[in-house]
């Protein structure tokens, strides 16, 4: 092996290469064992980095999901509050409770029943002769069928 370092290597890599070269000359078995250990650790480091990247991506996905759920929850809370205010304002003009609402409906219904339509006010009741004539016409129509 040559002792020349590559242009990309740092000074610590160069000194490590020199030490490994010397160790290779003195004790080749130990040098090979150290190289194998370093290579194994490099592979483990790559695996750990990949797992870390995967976990970071998973956390980012979960964070986005949580933020979306929080915004949906805030929207639902606002809608709920709006509905509560709307219900409260609908119930407040009447008396308290359901009895007040029922009484209001009954009162409105009775007012509708008691009112006369303008057509009924314009029509005058039939005289006795007009009623008799109406009955006769109705009778003749029913006999002709």
Automatic annotation (TrEMBL):
Residues 90-111 are annotated as: Disordered. It comes from the Eukaryota. Keywords: Coiled coil. Residues 31-79 form a coiled coil. This is Uncharacterized protein.
């Amino acid at each position: 092996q040559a002792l020349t370092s590559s242009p990309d290597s740092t000074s610590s890599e160069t000194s490590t290469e020199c030490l490994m070269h010397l160790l290779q000359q003195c004790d080749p078995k130990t040098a090979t064992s150290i190289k194998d250990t370093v290579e194994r650790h490099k592979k483990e480091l790559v695996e750990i980095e990949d797992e870390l990247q995967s976990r970071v991506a998973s956390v980012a996905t979960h964070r986005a999901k949580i933020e979306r759920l929080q915004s949906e929850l805030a929207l639902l809370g606002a809608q709920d509050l709006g509905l509560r205010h709307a219900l409260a304002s609908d119930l407040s003009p009447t008396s308290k409770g359901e009895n007040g609402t029922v009484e209001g409906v009954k009162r409105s219904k009775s007012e509708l029943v008691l009112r006369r339509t303008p057509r009924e006010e314009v029509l005058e009741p039939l005289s006795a002769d007009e009623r008799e004539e109406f009955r006769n016409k109705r009778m003749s129509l029913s006999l002709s069928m």
